[in-house]
Amino acid sequence: MARDYYEILGISRDADKEEIKRAYRRLARKYHPDVNSEPGADEKFKEINRAYEVLSEPEMRSRFDRFGEAGVSSAAGAGFQDMGDMGGFADIFESFFTGFTGNAGQTSRRRNGPSRGDDLRLDLKLEFREGIFGGEKEIRIPHLENCATCSGSGAKPGTKARACSTCSGSGQVRRATRTPFGSFTQVSVCPTCNGDGQVVEEKCETCNGLGRKQETKKLKITIPAGVDNGTRLRVSKEGDAGLRGGPPGDLYVYLFIEEDLEFHRDGINITSEIKISYLQAILGCSLEINTVDGPKELIIPAGTQPNTVLTMENHGVPKLGNPVSRGDFLITVLIDIPTKVTPEERELLEKLAKIKGDRTGKGGLEGFLGGLFRG
User: Fold this and answer.
1) CA distances (Å), 65 to each of 53, 83, 105, 189, 243, in order?
2) Chain centroid to CA 275: how far?
3) Domains of the chain, start order
4) Gyration radius from the chain CA atoms
5) Cα–Cα nearest to 374, from 302, 303, 321
6) How far apart are the first and last CA of the chain?
7) Residue 204 among known ligand-binding residues
8) Is 285 annotated as a binding residue?
9) What is the pLDDT of residues 52-79, one digit of tens each?
10) Annotated binding-site residue? 164
11) pTM of the complete model beyond 0.90
12) For residues 161 and 307, what is the distance between their CA atoms, to the nearest angstrom?
């Protein structure tokens, strides 16, 4: 049955040289025997090559257009005459065949040498003041440690691992494939030793041949002053043990700060509220208040208005990495206006109202007190 090379490449009969080349590259990547093991892929690849050989050469394409496949059958053994304009085979498959010989011999990584252990993550909750002032904290982490019985080799004491016979200790197996473009060697992980290059025949009974065991370890870590939600601490070499004598990974501790009923954090500042009487607001006073540093004296100026924010400098959060420098403590003043007063208090307030010339009576007291704070 005659073959239509245009149909094989999926292009129109008036396709130009660049369209033919692009179609060929796309299909060659898809059906190359080294990447497509489906039945019929090899024959399909040969058809694609033949179609490109004919259509990429103007004279052969002209004969095919006039006489069909019979017009170019005598040139079938001529070889791939126009491959130079493709920039060489490496241009077509360079990005796709990473891992084959050539570049593969340089970039493939042998797995039978030491390898670094995995990093671990631990989420740690801190009390509000621990986040501000830091300190030492004891934690417990489950991680993989080298087996003490076999010293990490995985072999039963008195024995040792032998080189894998499948890959001769390289951890890799190679498969050579011949194609119309030449021979290519595909490199893959050895299925027998899983890339280790060694096989343990008599496994250590303690770790079942793994060379590592899950253990829970106690650690003391230092929390710096000024940490906040999401701060990450790196504890070097406290992750999982490495394989085959490789270095351990690191431990990353993510910090989360618990809320406090009295204090709140705003960056490096701490905020709080205090409620005083209307007389204290009018006359001013000195109060002992709670701070993160303990009890401190706060001066309330006379005539303080509701929601006034008073500042105590350097009583906030230390700057992370510079604990000498601290934020401020910001106190919002709330004023307690009574809804009921005693007869004696009312008499005194009415006298004060007369002095100020304010009207009193039903609703008058509230209006009077409101006027005091507004004025």
Assistant:
1) 14, 21, 44, 48, 63
2) 45
3) 5-97 (1.10.287.110), 120-257 (2.60.260.20), 264-336 (2.60.260.20), 343-374 (no CATH)
4) 41
5) 303
6) 105
7) yes
8) no
9) 888 988 888 888 887 777 777 644 333 3
10) yes
11) no
12) 76
